[in-house]
Amino acid sequence: MIDLIPGSRIDNRDELADRLSMPRAQVARMGIAELVLEAYQRWGEDCPKYLLGDFAFVIKDGTRLFLARDPMGVCPLYIGHGDAGFVYGGDVHEVLGHPGVCAEMSPRAILTYLITGGFHDPELTLYQQVTKLPAAHSLTVTGSGSGSQQRRYWHPAETARFSGQSSAEYSAQLRELLTDAVRVRLPAEGHIATHLSGGLDSSAIAALAASQLDDPARLEAWSWMRPPASAEEEGDPEWSLARAVADKWNIPLHFTPFGERDFLNILQRKPLLDNDSADLWYEFPVREQMRSRGIGIVLSGWGGDQFISNAGESAYLEGLLSRNALGTLADLAGLAKNSRRPARAVASLARHQLAAPLLDYVRWRLSRASFNGWGDDGLQLATPEFQQWARQFSETIDRLQPRLRVRGRQLQELASGTIYNRVEAWAASGARAGVSYRYPLLDQRIVEFALGLPPGQYCGAGKSRRLFRDSMQGYFPAQQREGVTKREPQRVQEAYDTMASALNRLLLKFPPAPNPWIDVAALQRAAAALPPPGAALTGEALTALLSVKRATILATLSVDLPHF
Fold this sequence. Notes:
Rossmann fold, 564 residues, alpha/beta, 23 helices
């Protein structure tokens, strides 16, 4: 017997058919549960190694349970640790619904969220008695749960490195991988949504999806930008980059209004209780628009920046520290040459691509005694008692060690749980809106390809994200081909203004009751001290806003907020 988590998908049916010595046509007709059971019967507990796709399942084999979760953690699998025996489910409330599992919140999770803004841990949830099966892991449970063995079946650090190929050859391989990663995620029927910001990741996915659909009218795109208010704004890159891609491929493009009332009503829903810690507020109204149009599948570009479309922040430093220092400096000069102000561009590139990653590493080396290397801005808003506990148990949050090499950064993204935090959060909130997310750029084949690439392939020849751009030749309009980089100063400024105003309004009119974690008076003072809406946005102001926002979310978890 098998319990399959909704949203599970197996993408390598032809390969499995050959390995299982079965006709491909027969395997193509098999249901996912039947196919997974066939793999289990052939390979036993090693079967997840042979499965490509997004999946989570539990197989009941006599008195033994075998659980497995896909390599990137797209499909969640929660486990309860109360008095109800062994409990599992694809939704945290499914597990909490068992009478033996307590909904008491985890101090470690509260601390992690307050400092990092998420549950950046492979197993952590908001609840003391609920954990997650980590991505790329399986778990065998015997009896009533008294005996268990957890194993990792995919080890990204063991991915082989490539060598000896030209950029053109790598580009052709990547194009083939990207095309297939989108293809296997397109449903056979029904309407599909895609994010479209105008950046390279979302633009590539939208273009590849539109080019492969028999009926392009099935595809619609959403931007997190509000509708442009003038002809001048329509020509601004924040709007025009996404519009250029949509026009090229005849994709209807929807913009997303987002105001103070929208933000306050999302807080009223308390998404953190659903284990949604992503804090990506624009996605809530996007989901509502999708649901109103009957769309249940969304293609997202999440994961591209971390892996295959990596901007190569460490690639230049890595090159400078290698035998190719002169070539690296020439590449940086080529990037600056394409700028309208080459001298300023040289200084900016040197600061961001060379000095910044090196200084981050030096600061980390000098701050080993500080609070875990994360900083403690958010902790200043905690109660004295919680601060004392937090500093005593600061080792409960993994240190975020800066990496000087591209592959090291990519592996850290997987180890630190930042990737899993986003996909798990969207799985939780998406399920409540009837929306399922699919991530072509987190396809295991593409992640392994990114890990295997020589670092110089990410940038060079005067272009950032060189390999990704080259692989998508013919799919992008002129703006993306010419190297225009997506920036969102207007959206970020407006988001700051909206949230700063809303948080002040909430904390002044409806101050939460005292709780074990947050010092409400300190939180109110911090909110009042935020730069007012309309003030020039600085990094310090944004950091302060994020701390106030996280503390407000924690302080209001047990408070009934009004509808706005």
